[in-house]
Amino acid sequence: MKKIKYLLPLLAVLLCATNSFALVRVPPIIGSNMVLQQNAKATLWGWGDASERFTVISSWKTTPDEVTSSPAGKWKIQIATPPAGGPYTITLKGRSNTIVLENILIGEVWLCSGQSNMEVSNNKQIRDELPTAANDKIRFFQVAHASSEYPQEFADGKWVACNEESLKRFSAVAYFFGKKINKELNVPIGLIQSAWSGTPIELWEPQSIIDSDADMIKASKTIKTVTYRPDKPGLIYNSMIAPIISYTIAGTLWYQGEGNVPRAYAYEKMLTGMIADWRTKNGNEFPFYIVQIAPFSGYELPIDAALLYEQQTRTLKYPKTGMVVITDLVDDIKSQHPIDKLTVGNRLANLALADTYKKPIPLPEYRNPMFNRMEISKGKATLYLDYAPNGFMLKGDAKKATEFTIAGEDHNFVPADEVKLDKGKIVVSSKAVPNPVAVRFSFTNIAMSNLFNKEGLPVNPFRTDDWK
C-alpha cells in the first residue's frame, strides 16, 4: 500500500507533463505585443503534440495557414506579413488548446547585441528622455542573461512597449537607433536586446566556429575566468542567441570588442565566422552593423586598441556589413564606457537608413573616411581616402591634423611635420624621415584626432604597414 501511495502522486505528475507537452506552445519571443518584420516571411515556431496538424490565423490575412509538428513535437512556419501597421492578432488553434497573440505590430525588427556598451541603460541621456519616452510604436524584447553547454530552445523575456519604466532597463544605443528609424520611416520598430557586459566574442558563437581555425582556438584558450560571466566559447550563444535566431529581423547591431583587445589577431575571423553562422541559422543574409570600440588608456600595450580597430575594419570586406567610428565621442579616456550613446545610435541609424532602407542620405554623411592606398614621392606620402569627396576639416584649436606618424625602413615612427589636406587625399612628411615607407594615423589606444571629413565624421584609424 505504501508503494501505491507514493506512486500515485508521481503518476499524476507524469500525466500532467504529458498533457502539457501536447498543448500547442510558443517561446517567449513569439508573444503578444511583438513586432514582426514587414513585407517578409516571418518565422513562427514552437511545440505541440507529435505530428499534430493545426491552423495559424493571422488577422491581416483572409485565409489561415496550416502547419504540422514533427514526430518530436516541434513545428515552424513562415507567415507572409503585410506592410507596416497594426495592431493585429495571431491565433494558433490546436487539438487541445488555442493561443491568441494580441496587439501585434508589423514594422522593422533589429537584433542588438554585444557587451557592456550595448547593454548600458539609464545613463544621463536616457534619463533626459524618460518624461517623453512613451511610444507604443517602439517595442522592446530583452533576453535574460543565461548560459548553457548546449543550444537551448527557450530564452526568457517578454515584449513591452517603450515607456518611462521599460526604457530605464533597455540598451541606450539600441533605443536611440530605434527612435530615429521610427521617426524617419514612420513604422513600428521592434528591438531585441541580447547583450552581456564584459563578454568576449567567443561566447557569442558556437564552439564549432572557434574550433575551425588554429588562431581562434589559440585565442579562446586565453579567456580569463571571472565571476560575472561565463568563460568558454558558445556558452552565451547557446542560451541567448540560439533560442531567438530564427526570429525574422531586418538586421543586427553589434557593439563589442573590448573583451577581445588582448587577442585582437583572431577577431576578424571570429566576427565574420559569427556573422556567417547567425545568418545561416536565421535563413537570411541580413545587414550587420558594428560600432568600433572607443579609445581607452587601460589596455596593456600602447597599440592594443588600434589592432582591434584594424580587425573590425577588415570585417567590412564581408558582404552587407558597415561600421561607425566613435573616436571623437570619448569623454574620459580612463573609462571604457563613453557617455554619448545618442550619437552612436544616430550614426548607426544613418547607416541603416542609407544602406538598408535606401534613403537619400549623402554618402559622406554616414560613412567614415577610410584609407584606400598610399603613394610615395620625393620624401612625401600621399594618402588616398574614401568617403571624403568634399575634403577634410579640423575641429578644435589645432591648425594641423593630429595623430599622423611616419617611418622609414628602420620602423621608427615619428610625428609628421607637415600634413596637407586636400579633397580625398592627405600628404604627410617629416624632415626626420627623408625616405618614408609607412604612415600610421590614430594608431594607439588613446588617439583622438581632430581630423574629420567636411560632413563631420572622424577619419577611421589606420596604418599602411603590416609590421609586427
Automatic annotation (TrEMBL):
Residues 1-22 form the signal peptide. InterPro entries: SASA, SGNH_hydro_sf, SIAE. The keyword Hydrolase applies. It comes from the Bacteria. Keywords: Hydrolase, Signal. Residues 108-350 form the Sialate O-acetylesterase domain. The keyword Ligase does not apply. Pfam families: SASA. Gene3D superfamilies: SGNH hydrolase (3.40.50.1110). Coiled coil: none annotated. This is Sialate O-acetylesterase. It comes from Mucilaginibacter calamicampi.
